[in-house]
Amino acid sequence: MLNRKILLRKEVKSILRIASDSALDEMWKKHDFPNPIRIGIRRIGWYADEMEGWLRGRDEERLSREIAS
Fold first, then answer.
1. If you average pLDDT over residues 37-50, what whole number do you get?
2. Nearest partner of 25 among 7, 41, 44, 39, judged by Cα
3. Please, which pLDDT band fits residue 52 given cuts at 50, 70 and 90?
4. Beta bridge partners of 37
5. Nearest-angstrom CA–CA distance, 9 and 3
6. What is the DSSP secondary-structure string of 14-36?
7. How far, in Å, CA of 9 to CA of 14, rounded?
8. How many secondary structure helices (H) and strands (E) does the chain include?
9. Hey, CA dihedral for 45, 9, 53, 28, is it positive or negative?
10. Model-level pTM?
11. Rg (CA), the chain
């Protein structure tokens, strides 16, 4: 468990290609986006493996819609 990589907000936004903090906050508060973990008083992060799983899921959804069309 302790070997899991933690991505900071800036890294997650870079991966998702979004600029605003509020867009990221909205994603994890209202959707099936992985929940962050608190890593400090004012700092949160996301486990890299959970982010990768979430992205794989979005890709699978996209592929299944393309096949169904």
1. 94
2. 44
3. very high
4. 45
5. 19
6. HHHT---HHHHHHHHHHSSPPPP
7. 9
8. 3, 3
9. positive
10. 0.81
11. 14
Q: Is 46 exposed, middle or buried (0-12, 13-18, 19+ CB in 10 A)?
A: buried
What's the rounded Cα separation, in Å, for the pair 12 and 67? 29
Query: DSSP class of residue 63?
Result: H
What amino acid occupies position 15? I
User: Which H or E run contains 11?
Assistant: helix 9-16
CA 9 to mean position of chain CA atoms: 9
What is the amino acid identity at position 32? D
Q: CA 34 to CA 37: how far, in whole Å?
A: 9
State the sign of the Cα–Cα–Cα–Cα dihedral 2, 54, 51, 55.
positive
Query: 65: pLDDT confidence band, cut at 50, 70 and 90?
Result: confident
